[in-house]
Each structure stands twice: as structure tokens, then as C-alpha cells.
Amino acid sequence: NDVIPIEEVINSVRNDASGGIISYIGLIRDNSYDKKVVSVEYGDDGSAEARLQKIVETAKEQWPVNDMAIVHRVGKLNVGDNNVVIAVSTGHRQEGFAACQYAIDKFKEQLPTSKKETYTDGTCLDYEPKC
User: Fold this and answer.
1) Band of the pLDDT at 131, cuts 50, 70, 90?
2) Can you give the pTM of this predicted structure?
3) Given 3, 27, 47, 85, which is the most exposed site by the fewest CB atoms within 10 A?
4) Is residue 28 over pLDDT 90?
């Protein structure tokens, strides 16, 4: 549940063959389903690492990605906390944006393996993403 070291994630994909690095930083927002959010708790059933690796591998098959990193947090997070960082290095920006978009879309579909949102009215919502 440690804070994601954003600069380290970005630097981990830096290389001389790349013309740029595209990044996405996901944050816990203060609203969801027309309710005010207090916190979000993410779980991991042990399959997250393999799912993330599959997303990276598939992106590298579809676009000329030099390197890609996806780091996400589990545990209880508060509004404003970052929950995922994606960094993609490519020779050209178009491929980088496409690969990053693909990665965040797949992340949202497949991870985290469970999620619980708690709202200011005391209610909460538990759900699992589609796989």
C-alpha cells in the first residue's frame, strides 16, 4: 500500500531507443455513482502480477513498445491518492499513446481483483471487475 514512486516508474522505462515516454497516473476521485467517496479499498487475489504482465506482453505485441511498466496499489486508499501508474516508452508518440490507452483500459477491466468504495453517507459498494 506504499505510495507509488512515480518518477521511478517513469525512469524504469527510459532508454536510448525511445523518443518519448507516455504516462498515466490514476487517482482516487472524490465522487462515484453520484456519491461522495471517503475511501477505496483494493484487493489482490494473487493474480494481479500475472494479469499486469499479460497486459504488458499484449501491448508489446500490438505496438512497437520499447518498454512498459504498470504499478498499482492494494489496500485502503483515500481521495487524492494515486492508485495506478503506467509508463510506456516508444520511438514515436502515436504508438505510445495507443499502448498506454490500451493498458489503462485493460487495467480497468481486469484489475484490481476486488474493489470496495466507501461513501460519506456510510454506505459502500463492493464489486469485482470483469475478466
Assistant:
1) very low
2) 0.92
3) 3
4) yes
